[in-house]
Amino acid sequence: MEPGSSYLKPPAEDERRAAEEQKEQDEQEWVDKRHLAEAQDDSTLK
């Protein structure tokens, strides 16, 4: 990052960062649900 540019971040940068964070949250939620489903399947098979 260039010196002095931190206070002049364009809105697109904030939007990109927010979209990236949302994507990571969605992926983590999907993984959590998948693990929960697998755990439930394991317990019902035994």
End-to-end C-alpha gap: 56 Å
How many strand segments? 0
Structural class: mainly alpha
The fraction of residues in strands falls at under 5%
Per DSSP, the total helix count is 1
Protein name: (raccoon dog) hypothetical protein
Organism: Nyctereutes procyonoides
List the topology elements.
Layout: H1 11-45
Protein name: (raccoon dog) hypothetical protein
Region (Disordered): 1-46
Biased composition (Basic and acidic residues): 11-22, 30-46
Structure commentary:
This is (raccoon dog) hypothetical protein. The model has no long low-confidence stretch (mean pLDDT 83). The longest helix is centred in the middle third of the chain and has 35 residues, at 11-45. The chain has 1 helix and no strands. It has 46 residues and is mainly α.
Give a quick precis of the structure.
By secondary structure, the chain is mostly helical. The chain has one helix at 11-45. The model has no long low-confidence stretch (mean pLDDT 83).
Key attributes of the depicted protein:
46 residues, mainly alpha, 0% strand
